[in-house]
Amino acid sequence: MLQLEKNKTYLLACSGGPDSMALFNMLYQEHFNFAVALVNYHKRKVSDDEEEMVRNYALERNIDFYSLSLFKEDNIGNFQAWARRKRYDFFVKLTKEHLFDGVVVAHHLDDLLETYIFQKKRGGIYDFYSLKEISSYKNVAIFRPLLNFKKKELLLYCKENNVPYSIDESNLKNNYSRNIIRHTIVEKLTNQEIALYLKEINDLNSKLQQEDKIINDFLKQDKYYIKDFLNLEECVQKRLIYKLLKQNNLLISGKEINNIILFIKANNHNQYKIKNYFIYCNYGYFELVSLHKITYEINLNKPYIIDNDLFYFDLKNYPETFFIKEDSYPLKIKHPQKDEYVLIGKIKKKINRLYIDEKIPLKLRDIWPCIYNKEGKIIFFPRTNCIKKDNSLIFKLKVK
Questions:
Q1: How high is the mean pLDDT in each 10-residue block of the chain (400 residues)?
Q2: What CA–CA distance (Å, rounded) separates 280 from 244?
Q3: For the packed helices 47-59 and 18-29, what is the interaxial angle rounded to 10 degrees?
Q4: Which residues, 6+ apart, have CB-to-CB distance to 327 below 8 Å?
Q5: Given phi > 0 = left and psi -120 to 50 = alpha, else beta, which region is 222?
Q6: Where are the domains of the chain?
Q7: Which fold has domain 194-290?
Q8: How far apart are CA 374 and CA 78, in angstroms?
Q9: CATH architecture of 9-183
Q10: pTM for this model (two decimals)
């Protein structure tokens, strides 16, 4: 009945409700290897009784039982989100400590439909619609073997098999958006309507899968070309930006994603700040760059070959290329200020103007090196990130 493997050991997330208690009994009757975990939030008067019921049911069957006792913290904001995070973090901790092969949860068909309808009502950008049979949380597999079962079928199973369970009365009230969807929509659906919803979910997820291939191929590139980006469908553009940011732990609103797309379309050689990152638009492409500021200053009293993580300078063998004379020492290599000047031939140019003229990428302008003589004047400004002479490398900026 359950699509799980007999040679693996699972951790069952059990609340004491009819869904998880039905799954508990199914796992036990079908001789799966598993332990049970429960989180007690002490939110209701019967919370301790429910924990005791599950504990006794497990111990009577020689099933290992683990519990976590939590009390509502002050100023936690969304209780449901806080409770879910605490619950799953506990399951992950147990899974890693006891080497379980994953966590089994009792989400069922009603939950699947409720989740999808909630997503559609809320809008937003998703990697997947509704619930996956197998997903992961912090690199731990989460299994949902009951997605083909209706809630009422699990209730009937408990009654027919004398499985004890508790009803959380807060789930009967319409004080959460999900509860409203459950009671006013999902519980009233006919089998035909359910089939239509399931087809709609499957079709949408198939479309997301096709989009993911396009997005993944796009994000494999060294540079993200604006022209290629603008040729994508608008929905793909949004998911691409969402995925690019998400893989750097940046979660932002749909409104800000729209603003980023408008910024990319403008392609005005500027930057868009997102927390500790910038999105740079440069000469037909864009990229996401961390804001970690690099500072450096190198002092030299004699000709030297500099080879570090930032750049390579051969000042020893090719001093004339860098306009270095004997009386230029001591030298300094450092990043210039934008309002400083450098002499190009007989023309005095501002550093900021040179960045633009030489098409220096925005992300590199914060680390671009210059050579200063003993009088503090800039005697060399690299006009490209790599310089060779007589087939020998004499300068290279290593940061890309």
A1: 88 97 97 97 89 97 96 73 93 97 97 96 92 96 97 97 87 71 93 97 97 95 90 95 92 91 86 85 84 81 90 92 93 90 86 88 85 94 90 88
A2: 14
A3: 0
A4: 374
A5: alpha
A6: 9-183, 194-290, 297-397
A7: Chorismate Mutase Domain, subunit A (1.20.59)
A8: 61
A9: 3-Layer(aba) Sandwich (3.40)
A10: 0.75
Q: How many Cβ atoms are within 10 Å of 340's Cβ, its own excluded?
A: 17
DSSP letter, residue 208: H
Tokens of 319: 């001093």
User: 382: cis peptide before it, omega within 30°?
Assistant: no
pLDDT digits (tens, 9 = 90+) for 99-126: 999 999 999 999 999 999 999 998 889 9
Kindly tell me the burial class for residue 21, based on how many C-beta atoms sit within 10 Å of its own C-beta (0-12, 13-18, 19 or more): buried
pLDDT in tens, 133-172: 999 999 999 999 999 999 999 999 999 999 999 987 766 6
Query: Scanning the structure block, which residue is given the tokens 């290992």?
Result: 64
Query: Cα–Cα distance between 63 and 52 in angstroms, integer?
Result: 14
